[in-house]
Task: structure prediction
Amino acid sequence: MGNPFLLRNKLIMQIYLPIAEVSVDAFLILGIGGVVGFLSGMFGVGGGFLITPLLFFIGIPPAVAVATGANQVVASSISGVLAQLKRKAVDFRMGSVLLVGGVGGSAVGIWVFAWMQARGQIDLFVQLSYVLFLGLIGAMMLQESLRAFWRSKKPGAPIRRSHVHSWVHGLPFKMKFRASGLYISVIPPMIIGALVGFLAAIMGVGGGFIMVPAMIYLLGMPTKVVIGTSLFQIIFVTAFTTVMHAVTSQTVDMMLALILIFGGVIGAQIGTRVGVRLKAEQLRILLSVLVLAVALKIAADLLIRPSELYSVIPMVLP
Amino acid sequence: MIWRLVGLLMALAGPCGAQESIVSGLSQSRVSITADFDGSEILVYGAVKREATIPTGQLDVIITVEGPPMPLIVRRKDRVWGIWINNAAVQIDSAPTFYAVATTRPLADSLTATENLRHSITIDKVIRAVGITSEADASEAFVEAMMRVRTVEGQYRLLADRVELTDQTLFRSDFTLPANLTEGEYRVRLFLLREGRVVAEQERVIGVRKEGLERMIFTLATEQPLIYGLLSLLMAAAAGWAASVAFRFFRP
Result:
């Protein structure tokens, strides 16, 4: 205490990243990986929507941040799924059905992304869809989970069912999802998977923050199964993204990924354990607050006049 | 003013300028970027070699260090429909990734505008000499903004009074290369000036290269991208699994 130099020597370990071509503090990266992994294990979101802006903030080039973030999400999702697996909280059947839809959706998404990129408005489109979807989903979840939370405080109040029987249950191709305790048609999860895959490809994320509420509110899956199942399908989406980035733009930084992953897998394990102790309503309130905070931050960036209007982006040599 | 005039006359009158030349050395001509690379100090030193007596007129030394050039895009945010978005952009074909100018005295005193233009000494002249041609109208503001941004980030540096000149003969200057260095050839130029005019010039090169693990990763990523991508995934999977096993072991 009181000796900043000793503190500096102990806590700072500069490391040069071969692909990003910047030198960063390894402990800072470890911390970012840990925090994102923690949230990932707790909520079942990949954390792509958090890790990319955080890496960008500490000076990693955006393209490297997106690609390497995806690689980190693969590791923390695997760590999270394995932790959930022990609690038998992964619905593999549902995960696979969502994934099939997701692959189709992301193929369309990648095509739309390329089309928007050619028109030169992809940045704005990505930012606006972040604000719109994060804001909408965050607000809806917060409102619903707060209501559920108050209800749980007042015993004797009428309990609303998590899902109601409707026309959805009349659709053909019914399948038993034992882990989720559902007997429904494969069409709704397939469509949801496709929509999430589409958005994920456009926004460059795994799509967990859209998938989790969709599974809870639209499919009526129990919260305890949702997290593991969401992580299960995120593994495949982000693995695909990582390889695509590595091949097309060579922007995956293995050194950066290694440090992020080291922090991330430990964070994910701790997050899973903390998540188990929290009540489902509390978990949903926290996730919705987090999602809303990110949406507000992006919205503020769009609305407030930046101090430097110009930005310099190095071009990758062909 | 009078001295300047005298200097000018002397410069015009005789070939006295050509009687001085530079002898120089670098503390290192190679910089290796390894995993723990945290910037590098380069010492540029030398002497003024002359056959005759010391000519009159103010003597100055200017040293520039220039990183490998790269193309870049400068974007400007504008307010459209109430939100700030990237609106206009100008492409600059070639701009050094790093540039530092060190001088014996303030730049304006030691270098005339025409000599600066002729030898492309300051960063704006370097970029104008090679950089932009197309999109000419609005590009001025963009180039200025680019230099401002890079100066703030420490990529472009003006180090006035940072060359030590002793007895009009010996000179030395220290350059700090930043930690976020790009691989490539770094050009070191040395100028000897009399009364703001360049009388001698020399060029040297520092090779900056990734070594060891950094080299291995970089080569694999660029030459075998698919294998590299799959390897990254394998690493992620192994780490995810290992963490899960480790935690099961420690906290049953």
About this structure: Residues 42 and 275 of chain A are 5 Å apart (CA to CA). Chain A has a mean pLDDT of 78.
